[in-house]
């Protein structure tokens, strides 16, 4: 049962990644959205953090706050028609 929930969660994360990838490449996406997406990607991959990871708890907490908050803001900034297009594009099976 636990494995089934984990598989569903991983499938959901993969779908959201595909939606973000589709949105980021959309030609009508405003520049500020592309800049925020680039910042979030760079922050996630960068070894430099706001709070260094060697500080117990707080070092990991900044990653758990900054990235989800940035994604939430990005989702709010993306025009609804582009987000709808991305979700329907990802939901369609690939040929």
From TrEMBL:
<keyword id="KW-0812">Transmembrane</keyword>
<protein>
    <recommendedName>
        <fullName>DUF1232 domain-containing protein</fullName>
    </recommendedName>
</protein>
<feature type="domain" description="DUF1232">
    <location>
        <begin position="34"/>
        <end position="68"/>
    </location>
</feature>
<dbReference type="Pfam" id="PF06803">
    <property type="entry name" value="DUF1232"/>
</dbReference>
<keyword id="KW-1133">Transmembrane helix</keyword>
<dbReference type="InterPro" id="IPR010652">
    <property type="entry name" value="DUF1232"/>
</dbReference>
<dbReference type="GO" id="GO:0012505">
    <property type="term" value="C:endomembrane system"/>
</dbReference>
<keyword id="KW-0472">Membrane</keyword>
């Amino acid at each position: 049962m636990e494995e089934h929930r984990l598989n569903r969660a991983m499938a959901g994360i993969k779908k959201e990644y595909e939606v973000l990838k589709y949105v980021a490449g959309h030609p009508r996406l405003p520049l500020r959205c592309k800049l925020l997406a680039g910042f979030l990607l760079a922050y996630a991959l960068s070894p430099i953090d706001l709070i260094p990871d060697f500080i117990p708890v707080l070092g990991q907490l900044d990653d758990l706050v900054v990235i989800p908050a940035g994604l939430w803001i990005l989702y709010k900034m993306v025009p609804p028609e582009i987000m709808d297009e991305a979700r329907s594009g990802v939901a369609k099976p690939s040929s």
